[in-house]
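User: quick one, sequence for these tokens?
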């Protein structure tokens, strides 16, 4: 569950706080678990909701007009990027972009659910995702340029 928290938190300490608060909610809600799905999935949902509650309580949300013409950006070419590098790039995104990116890409939420849980419009969700992807794309390009420069270095 710590991995889930780290996707939504800006720092390790904040992730620990989310995990702690989430487990308190889990223990208080054990009686409501209905054994219809996996226990892990139920716990994950509580942890994600705890992270979202924390986000909503401390962040002023910016709204954007609904955009029907926001195009999904091309898939990022991340196949050769090390996982730790990618996770650090996601971690460095501005909070509202990181939250939407994590919910949409990593957890598979549709925009209408993201909009509902984050209390933003669907257009804002799409816009934040597009901006997150754009930032990540720029960071990946810079990373690959840096890697190319390092591979071209010769030690005499």
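Assistant:
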């Amino acid at each position: 569950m710590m991995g889930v928290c780290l996707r939504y938190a800006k720092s390790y300490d904040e992730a620990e706080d989310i995990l702690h608060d989430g487990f308190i909610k889990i223990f208080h809600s054990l009686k409501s678990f209905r054994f219809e799905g996996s226990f892990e999935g139920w716990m994950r949902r509580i942890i994600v909701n705890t992270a979202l509650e924390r986000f909503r309580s401390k962040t002023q949300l910016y709204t954007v007009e609904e955009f029907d013409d926001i195009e999904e950006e091309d898939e990022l070419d991340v196949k050769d990027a090390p996982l730790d590098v990618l996770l650090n790039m996601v971690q460095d995104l501005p909070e509202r972009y990181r939250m939407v990116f994590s919910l949409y890409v990593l957890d598979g939420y549709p925009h209408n659910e993201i909009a509902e849980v984050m209390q933003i419009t669907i257009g804002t969700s799409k816009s934040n995702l597009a901006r997150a992807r754009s930032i990540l794309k720029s960071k990946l390009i810079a990373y690959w340029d840096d890697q190319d420069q390092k591979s071209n270095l010769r030690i005499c």
